[in-house]
Design goal:
The structure holds two protein chains of two kinds. Chain A contains eight helices and no strands. By secondary structure, chain A is mainly alpha-helical. Chain B contains two helices and four strands. Classes of the chains: A mainly alpha, B alpha+beta.
Chain lengths: 206, 95
């Protein structure tokens, strides 16, 4: 019983530290931005894969899944690496400036730890958001054998992608405190434009 | 060694964590009865504050630890008082 209470106390302390570090380093705001931006990229890229495969005559779900999963992994690695390097450089610059102004080594302080934590969290969000968004869009293709018709799987994947885009728009609307539907429609249009352009290119014979 | 009763510190610290957080962290220390932080000067990223701490038995090392953990640096110890009786600074004719 005593051990359980100690464990809960440590957990609560850990959560409090995380909250404080997150506030000091402004993690929530930047992670939110990266999440929306990269999930949007992930969904639109997957729309491109779906349209390219459909127009290219690919009727084997496994082929689309292979391309989609490989692309989502690449997007994840790219996001993780890119954000880690960029964020680490940016945070390091801020810390050095603060050290110069405060005449103190900030690396071992709460500020230094918050800064390092921010780099890890932002890199994870940046890497996972496009990867997971792409995998969610591909779900109807993962269960293509259950659906029975690859064309229905393509259509369902596109519907999931458009719903995802609309949801992301609503999330942005919620952040900005503006119209959820208005923002949802704006992101939805991006998906519809991508689909329409793919069809148009096909018609043009490209 | 006599018990430390009052400390007045001149501290340069980053704006974040803020003085509201710092004053509470210092007040939570054992042997501290009360803390006051007043702003002397503010810049874009850092601020100069005067920290006044009173208690029955203050630990300078622990106070310094909290200040430094929160990114601050003690520039000077402007006033100290110890012992059973808290003695105020006395004005002299030279003043």
């Amino acid at each position: 019983m005593e051990g359980h209470r100690d464990g809960m106390g440590l957990l609560a302390q850990g959560v409090n530290h995380l909250r404080e570090y997150s506030r000091i380093a402004g993690v929530a705001e930047i992670a939110r931005r990266y999440f929306a931006m990269n999930a949007f990229d992930g969904v639109l890229t997957t729309i491109g894969i779906l349209m390219g495969s459909y127009i290219g005559g690919v009727r084997d779900a496994r082929s689309v899944i292979h391309i989609g999963v490989a692309t989502s992994i690449s997007m994840g690695v790219s996001g993780l690496w890119g954000a880690y390097l960029t964020e680490a450089a940016e945070r390091q610059r801020e810390l050095v400036e603060l050290e110069r102004l405060s005449f103190t080594d900030q690396r071992k302080t709460k500020i230094g730890r918050a800064s390092r934590l921010a780099v890890v969290i932002v890199a994870l969000v940046d890497g996972l958001a496009p990867c997971l968004a792409a995998l969610v869009v591909l779900v109807p293709l993962f269960v293509a054998s259950l659906i029975g018709n690859i064309l229905v799987s393509y259509a369902l994947s596109l519907v999931v992608a458009l719903i995802g885009l609309f949801g992301l728009g609503m999330f942005l609307g919620h952040i900005s405190g503006r119209s959820l539907i208005g923002y949802g429609l704006r992101t939805l249009v991006a998906g519809l434009v991508s689909i329409a352009l793919s069809f148009l290119l096909d018609r043009a014979g490209i | 060694m006599g018990n430390l009763r009052r400390l007045v510190l001149d501290v340069l610290k980053p704006l974040d964590p803020g003085v509201v957080t710092l004053v509470q962290l210092l007040a939570d220390l054992e042997g501290v009865d009360g803390v006051n932080i007043s702003l002397s000067e503010i810049d874009r990223r850092v601020e100069n504050v005067k920290i006044t701490i009173e208690g029955r038995s203050l630990s300078y090392e622990m106070i310094k630890g909290i200040v430094e953990e929160n990114g601050g640096a003690i520039h000077s110890v402007d006033e100290v008082a110890a012992g059973n009786l808290l003695i105020e600074d006395v004005a002299t004719t030279q003043d």
